[in-house]
Automatic annotation (TrEMBL):
Belongs to the BMP lipoprotein family. GO terms for cellular component: plasma membrane. This is Nucleoside-binding protein. SUPFAM superfamilies: Periplasmic binding protein-like I. Keywords: Cell membrane, Lipoprotein, Membrane, Signal. Transmembrane segments: none annotated. It is a lipid-anchor. It is found in: Cell membrane. Residues 54-327 form the ABC transporter substrate-binding protein PnrA-like domain. Its main location: membrane. Signal peptide: none annotated.
């Protein structure tokens, strides 16, 4: 079994319109495992040390970004509160050397569950995990795993899709802008498809920052989109979505929140948010580990109205549109199909 884990899961993907999607079909057929909450792929082994001691949190950014980093930090605090343990947080971790130094320090302080909040931590954990067999490492959106490494995947396509459905029903100019961190984000592809499936006449204008946090470039791209007469913008990036939402409000343009509930940022202009409930996910992972039930492998969280979902509708969204979008979401949850 150990030999099986040492063979890393690499390049097992197919491409749909430029977006990598992990091909789970053969594993589901073998395991007969399906869940509306998450899909799990592993070699059938659970890292059963359990009994959560303390928790470590490594971030490639900051806890003050109001989205990705903040959600992780709030999740860690929730774990601390629920399990009455210590949480050690380290921000702006960007190298294997920094990661190893922090992990070594965390080990000394009794940490046995380490979260690396980003895909880069997969390769870092892969290089040092064997030296820490009594610690379990969890990171996000990668395919590398080992006996004590788990990767958490967020399947963002559907949350983007339903935000696109809503946007197509709300737009008056039939011009919608997207400012993404990167072009191949699943939620961006889903947003595009949701708009087009709802109203093919709507034009979408995509601009990419090629960075999760570059606010200056994102604001320049937004200024560029104003010339396209957009009346809705979807800023899909951790570090720049709040500045874009605030700038959109100044120009009477609707916006979509990203990762966390952002209706309160601009109640009159945010029409919904595409939410990955990091607090709940962090607590769920910690509980699994504490019970000796956290698997090694790749865990997928999909759109389920619990962990990944659409946020509150803005005050300007009509009751009719709310009912139509809710009906589309319910059909998907019941049938698994996005199409009518």
């Amino acid at each position: 079994m150990v030999a099986m884990f040492s063979e890393k899961l690499q390049n097992i993907s197919r491409t749909y319109l430029g977006i990598g999607v992990l091909d789970l079909k053969k594993y589901l057929l073998l395991l007969g495992l399906a869940s509306t909450v998450f899909l799990l792929v592993s070699c059938g082994q659970v890292f059963n040390k359990g009994q959560l001691n303390n928790v470590g949190l490594l971030l490639d950014g900051t806890i003050h970004d109001e989205t990705w980093g903040k959600g992780a930090y709030l999740g860690a605090l929730e774990i601390k509160e629920e399990h009455n343990i210590s949480v050690l947080t380290r921000e702006n971790v960007s190298t294997i050397r920094e990661t190893e130094e922090h992990v070594k320090d965390m080990k000394r302080q009794g940490v046995n569950l380490v979260f690396g909040h980003g895909s880069e931590f997969g390769k870092y954990f892969d290089q040092l995990n064997e030296a820490y067999p009594d610690m379990h490492f969890v990171y996000f959106n990668g395919n590398t795993f080992d006996q004590n490494i788990t990767s958490i995947h967020f399947d963002g396509y559907e949350m983007g899709y339903f935000a696109g459905v809503l946007s197509a029903k709300v737009t008056q100019t039939n011009e919608i802008g997207i400012i993404s961190a990167f072009e191949n984000q699943p939620e961006v592809q889903g947003f595009f498809e949701g708009v087009k499936d709802t109203d093919p006449r709507v034009n979408l204008h995509l601009r990419s920052v090629f960075d999760w946090y570059d606010q200056q470039r994102a604001l320049l791209l937004f200024k560029d989109l104003l010339a396209d007469n957009i009346d809705i913008v979807y800023p899909a990036g951790d570090g720049f979505n709040i500045p874009i939402i605030l700038e959109a409000e100044k120009h009477d343009i609707y916006s979509i929140g990203y990762v966390s509930e952002q209706n309160e940022v601009a109640p009159e202009s945010v029409i919904t948010s595409t939410i990955q409930d990091l607090e709940k996910i962090y607590v769920n992972i910690a509980n699994q580990f504490d019970q000796g039930e956290l698997p090694s492998g790749v865990i997928h969280y999909g759109f389920d109205n619990e962990y990944i979902y659409l946020g509150e509708y803005g005050d300007t969204v009509s009751d009719e549109v709310k009912e139509e979008v809710d009906a589309a979401i319910n059909r998907y949850l019941e049938s698994g199909s996005l199409k009518n």
